[in-house]
Amino acid sequence: MQSLRTYVDEFSADIKPHVDDCRTEFENKPFEIGGIEVEAPILYAALRIFQPERVVEVGVANGVSSYYILSALEANDNTGTLTSIDLPKYEDDHTGEWDANAGAWIPSGREVGWIVPDEYRDRWDVQIGNMSDLLPNELYSGDVDAFVYDGPKRYSERKRTFDMVANSVGDCLYFCDDIAWNPSFERWADQNRLRWDTFGNAGLAVDGEL
Ligand SMILES: C[S@@+](CC[C@H](N)C(=O)[O-])C[C@H]1O[C@@H](n2cnc3c(N)ncnc32)[C@H](O)[C@@H]1O
């Protein structure tokens, strides 16, 4: 295993530039690309260190976090799969405030997860629908090694989702973005006697050493 610094440097040099290129498409839009930002190197490095075989994600939008996860899986000796669940919001269907979806709108003419390059897609399964309906099927087998959550921020929804995952899977790495919205992630991790830490606006929790 390499040092955390090695993985963060790998992320900055090889992975992040693609997202910065895609960001130019949003220059004249009233919304941002909407992906995880300063916490991204932590997600990438954690997946490089923990080497998960199967990752499940909630919240795709334009696909920033999905791209980071798939990049880490490829760098992990080209092993592992990602299943991502999303109920996407498209610019063309927009009403109300642009902030309503934490800024994560998909521009006209683009599909969910569009920034993920073709060469990463053979290990990626995208499921469109409500996480409450789709997640139980993904958890059924119990073989989830990492769960990445960047879906709805509300306390009750987040807690319910993490409870559902923890009740179904064994040893798992949990990542949650936007933890500053409310203390649901930290409380859930304490209640489940997990080791957890926060990095900026992201939380990580595991059953063993962190
Ligand atoms: C903050 S965005 C995800 C950004 C993404 N992780 C990235 O890095 O680009 C949150 C996403 O969760 C979706 N979402 C909201 N409620 C959902 C639900 N009940 N089930 C599944 N996805 C949902 C939103 O439409 C949006 O696409």
From TrEMBL:
Keywords: Methyltransferase, Transferase
An annotated GO BP: methylation
GO molecular function, one term: methyltransferase activity
Gene3D superfamilies, per the entry: Vaccinia Virus protein VP39
Keyword Transferase: yes
Name recorded for this polypeptide: Class I SAM-dependent methyltransferase
Species of the source: Haloarcula terrestris
Source taxonomy: Archaea, Methanobacteriati, Methanobacteriota, Stenosarchaea group, Halobacteria
